[in-house]
Write a structure and sequence with these properties.
It is a single chain. The chain is α+β, with helices and mostly antiparallel strands. Helices cover 28% and strands 31% of the residues. The protein contains 5 helices and 7 strands. It has a 7-stranded mixed beta sheet, with helices on both faces. Helix 3 crosses helix 5. It is globular and about 40 Å long.
Length: 190
Amino acid sequence: MITVVRYTPELRNDLEHFVEEIKQYDLFNWSSIERLKTDKITYFMAYYHNKIISINGCYNYKDTDWILFTRQFTIPKYFKLIKRSGSKIWASMSIPTRFLALPSLQYALDKGAKSMFYCINVSADNIGWKDGLFPLRHAEQMIKSDIISYAGVHDINSVPQHVFRVHIKNMIVFLNKIANLPLRLNDEIT
């Protein structure tokens, strides 16, 4: 079973193991605990067989503006851990979407968030995964689902970013719909 935990310093060893496991993908923002900025970003982590397989962060950008889906990553061998259960809802087999996005969003709301945003580094436009997924393709699908809208390119923490406004109510409905789908795991993945 997949369990979700909010990161606390007591879980540092687990997060260090996660960072070590993903070093093979040569991803700068996930290359160390320091790069994960656990002092600024609140992480929710998906555990499977007592180890972290996926993380999703959120943080207060300024005032009541929060940024979601920060430093989100799933170890690629777990991409197919969730089996399709008859539903053709986009992202229903995504561990971060199914398990981590709603706790992150709720955490931000509990901390006073009034506006939420999703950002993609402009330099990441042409960086894809081995299976051909591109960061902007996910954003395009979220726009089609009316859960985000494009807000332009802005400097966020001195880095040019594609910024998307999260439609909070629509996002909550979407995430609850996914969370309530029947769950089947591919237990052959360990």
